[in-house]
Structures are given as C-alpha cells and as structure tokens.
Amino acid sequence: MSLNPFDLYDVASLLTEEERAVQESVARFTNERVLPIIGDCFDQGQFPKELISEVAEMGLLGATLPEQYGGSNLGYVSYGLICQELERGDSGLRSFVSVQSSLCMYPIYAYGSEEQRMRWLPDMAAGKVIGCFGLTESHGGSDPASMKTRATKDGDAWVINGSKMWITNAPMADIAIVWAHTEDGIQGFVIEKGTPGFTVQEIKKKMSLRASATGALFFDNVRVPDANRLPNVKGLKGPLGCLTQARYGITWGPIGAAQACLEEVLAYTKERILFGRPVAATQSAQIKMADMARRITASQLLSLQLGRLKEAGKMEPTQVSLAKWNNCRMAIDIARECRDLLGGAGITTEHAAIRHALNLESVITYEGTETVHQLVVGRELTGINAF
C-alpha cells in the first residue's frame, strides 16, 4: 500500500474527526476557489477581496474564539490546519486570515472590554469589518520597544502621533489596532478609518506577497476616545502576546506552501523527458524530492506537537520560535529547489514555486526574522540574552 507523498507519517491519523473535517473543507475551498485565480492576483498585485465573504461564511475568521463573539470555537490544531491549507494556495490569503484573527480579533478579545468585544468581534468574524495591526515601524522592526509612536492623554481622549510600516490589510482596513508609548507604558488603541489625521498609504512595487494588501499608517494628532483604548494590558506583553498567537499559525502555513511546490514538481518531473527518460527517473531529482518529503514530514510533526501543547496550555514562546524558524526555512528552501527542478518554466507564475518562493521571503522575515528566532532559542539554551 503506497504512502501519501504529502503525509508520509500519516499525520492525518493523529487528528480528531473535527480536525480532519476542517482540513478537508478548507482544502476544497483552496482547490476550487483560490488556486484558479491566485496566480493572476499575484501578477496583478491585487488581493482577492471577493473571497472574504466566503472565508467568513466558512468560520475561518477568529476561528478559535467563542461563538458568542462570532468565532467557531475551534481548537488550535484546527486553526493551524486552516493556515496550512490557505497557504497551500498563497501566503497572502493566509496572512489576511492571520492578521484578522490573531493580530486584530485576538487582542480585542484578550485585552479589550466586553463592550469592545461585542462592538467589533461579530462584524469582524463576518468579514464586515477588516482590521490591521500597527506595531512595526520603519526604523526598528525587530525592536518594537524602540517605537516612536506616542499617545498622550487629553481629557477623556488620547492624541496619537507617529507612523507604522509594512502593515498587512492596511489599505482595506476599517480599523487599526495600534500600539503606542504612553506615560503608563505601551498601550493598544482601536483607531477607526476616517478618523481625522489618520491616513493610509499603500505600499507598491512589492516582489513578495503581491496578492496581499500592504500599507503604511500615519497619525497626525489623531484623537481617539478612551473607550477605544484596550484596557486590560500594558507594556510589550500586549503586542508580543498577539505575535505569539500569529506566529503559531505561521508555523503551519509554510507546510502548505511546501506541499504545493512538491506536488507541482512531482507531476512535472514525471512528464518532463530529458535524455530519453523522465526527470523523475534520475537519482539527483529523486534525492532532492525525498529530502523535501523528509523536511515536510518533520515540520508537520513539529507543528502538530506545538498545537497539542498550546491546547494543553503548555506552549512556550521559545517553542513557537523554533517551529517558525524551522518551518519557514524548510519551505523557502523547498520552493527554491522546486523552482530549479522546473527549469526555465519555473520562473513564470504559471507554476507555483516561484510565487511561493517570493512570498516566503516575507514569511521568513515578518513576525520575527529567522535570526531573531535563532537568538530566542539560543537565549533559552544558554540563559544569556544576545540581542
């Protein structure tokens, strides 16, 4: 009995019935609705907004949140599988869901008031309100404590000045979760589109995540009522807690991208005839594809165990760093190797490998670069902070 080339260790058998149903549902959506259009979206530099309502109807936005807030109350392994199958389509679509769910809905749920939860979360789960997450600034992406954005209390409101850079969903967002220094530490604010002094500039000329909307946020004496301040967290633990949520999903996403590349190159090398035989019949090609399967399998098991730890309340940030580092490196290396096996044809977006390779340049960078995560693990091993 032959093994599934994309699941050599039968990870599917370790999933619950609900988890398998979630994966199969999102896989069908990716096959039927994402893959037919995503190449053109990448070419045109456009996010497929027409998919938002379908993603929402499937319960993929805020999937782990309680149903009273519009969520699906799914476990974290199910959420990881959602990320995996969406990124099998494109990192841009998975990024949209990650930002909406982990970076925008999660902080409102975890750090917001009950009034804020009821005001924003149901509409966000329904895809009626889109969010973006404003933490990174142009001068110090890996050092969020150095942010220059400031919020000053003025009566029953706050006046915010500063800017944020590389913000996913920004050009189409209705609200922004913005982190700023205050006299009482770093705090989060919900800033609504159209607030005077709040402007968004779309970032163009990207060669990565082209099917994702990216922008910069600018705040010029933006006045925000105290009712829009997230009251239940202060300090860097607020935004870093959100990033841990998102990074967890990111450990799963690149698995899907790598599987898509391997699936494509397996089919191509069986059909491509060179020197009288299929490329897949050569030792060099088989060794490369075997190595891809090895690395995908290791990443699958890594993320699954991470998910089980998270569901048990035992997951540590260092474990997330290890998985994010390993799985992003795995996927980008596989995408590049698949591009090579496709030969000249691999440089066109008619094939997925070059698109995934370019997208993964962003995925391996955002929410902690590879080097940052290596140093997080190094600090855990030695007890010495080398940042």
* Architecture (CATH level 2) name of the largest domain: Up-down Bundle
Largest sheet: 4 strands, antiparallel
Order of helices and strands: HHHHHEEEEEEEHEEHHHH
Please report which band the strand proportion falls in: under 5%, 5-15%, 15-25%, 25-35%, 35-45% or over 45%: 5-15%
Let me know the CATH homologous superfamily of the largest domain: Butyryl-CoA Dehydrogenase, subunit A, domain 3
Strand order of the largest sheet: 2-3-7-6
- From the N-terminal CA to the C-terminal CA, the straight-line distance is 50 Å
Q: Domain count, please report it.
A: 3
The radius of gyration over CA amounts to 21 Å
Report the mean per-residue pLDDT as an integer: 96
Reading off the top of the CATH hierarchy, the class of the largest domain is best stated as Mainly Alpha
> Could you estimate the helical fraction of the residues in percent?
40-55%
Helix/strand structural class: alpha+beta
CATH topology of the largest domain: Butyryl-CoA Dehydrogenase, subunit A, domain 3
Pfam families: Acyl-CoA_dh_1, Acyl-CoA_dh_M, Acyl-CoA_dh_N
Organism: Stenotrophomonas koreensis
Pathway: Amino-acid metabolism; tryptophan metabolism; Amino-acid metabolism; lysine degradation
Protein name: glutaryl-CoA dehydrogenase (ETF)
Structure notes:
This protein is of the alpha+beta class and 387 residues long. The chain has three domains: 11-125, Orthogonal Bundle (Butyryl-Coa Dehydrogenase, subunit A, domain 1); 131-228, Beta Barrel (Butyryl-CoA Dehydrogenase, subunit A, domain 2), CATH 2.40.110; 237-382, Butyryl-CoA Dehydrogenase, subunit A, domain 3. The chain has helices spanning 17-44, 52-57, 76-89, 91-111, 114-125, 237-271, 283-311, 317-341, 353-363, 370-382; strands at 131-134, 150-154, 157-168, 175-182, 185-192, 198-202, 214-225, 273-274, 277-278. The strands form three sheets. The chain has a four-stranded antiparallel sheet, with helices on one face. A three-stranded mixed sheet has the order 1-4-5, covered by helices on one side. A two-stranded antiparallel sheet has the order 8-9. The chain starts with 16 loop residues before the first helix and ends in a 5-residue tail after the last helix. 49% of the residues are buried.
